[in-house]
Design brief:
The protein is of the alpha/beta class. Helix content is about 40%, strand content about 25%. The longest helix is centred in the N-terminal third of the chain and has 15 residues. It comes from Channa striata (Snakehead murrel).
């Protein structure tokens, strides 16, 4: 998300910036309703109508900033018998998923999922037009319309190796009615992750707040379902970003 808009949402104060003005017609809707499908349909439709050619819209930052957090995990989760199953959750029109597909030396099946069919259609058209090719010929890339609170309807238990969340949880936590949905999404992620599978959350939220929330929400009755850690991504445009790593604990038979 644009840093100026992020600071505005977090603090409740109006920050006058080019980013806010560029989407001024839906700024209030974004703040209050970032958990709603209609909000994002409108956002991506309006964004695409402003430029004659498609351009990826990156919340926070692009793939180049976080590739060192993602690519080594693909290597560790690689299995000779099956591709690494990757979910880019709340992909919007980001290039992150296609970059993983294009650069991963190990075979990956990348699913880019978003609640907005507008974003999904834009990305499908873009990838077809660009004829993006994978690094590994066994890799696959697809785009699907998906409500991330209902992952269980699209994935079986223990079926995903890596989930990447760049701003999706932040959007839910900062919307008027989204905090409960954010907790549900985390539990859904833990359900569909394989044993030792990993969820990466990229966020500008301070670790004092996010770590406590993650540790609380990742509990199953009487036991922690996951191990939680954090690394600093770095400061960009005056905002410090973090990578929160949530790893599903192995199931004890």
């Amino acid at each position: 998300m644009c840093p100026a808009l992020t600071r505005w949402i977090s603090s409740g104060r109006l920050v006058v910036s080019a980013c806010v003005r560029r989407h001024s017609s839906i700024t209030t809707e974004l703040i209050d309703n970032m958990d709603k499908k209609a909000t994002w349909d409108r956002f991506y439709a309006e964004s695409s109508s402003r430029t004659p050619t498609f351009k990826n819209f990156e919340w926070f930052f692009g793939f180049d900033v976080v590739q060192d957090f993602i690519m080594p995990l693909l290597q560790t989760k690689s299995d000779m018998d099956a591709p690494v199953q990757v979910l880019d959750m709340g992909c919007g029109t980001s290039a992150l998923g296609p970059c993983i597909y294009r650069q991963s030396p190990v075979p990956v099946h990348v699913t880019c999922a978003d609640i907005s069919p507008v974003a999904v259609r834009l990305m499908q058209e873009h990838v077809r037009a660009k004829a993006i090719q994978p690094h590994n010929l066994s890799s696959k890339l697809r785009f699907v319309e998906l409500d991330c609170t209902q992952l269980h309807e699209h994935y079986g238990s223990s079926s995903v190796d890596l989930i990447v969340d760049k701003g999706t949880t932040d959007a839910l936590l900062r919307s008027k009615e989204g905090k409960g949905k954010a907790g549900l999404v985390l539990k859904q992620c833990l359900k569909v992750l394989r044993s030792s599978g990993t969820l990466l959350q990229f966020s500008d939220e301070d670790p004092d707040a996010r770590l406590l929330w993650l540790e609380t929400e990742a509990q199953e009755p009487g036991v922690m379902a996951a191990d939680v850690g954090v690394q600093e991504v770095g400061e960009l445009r005056g905002v410090c970003y973090y990578c929160y790593e949530v790893t599903r604990r192995p199931v004890v038979q």
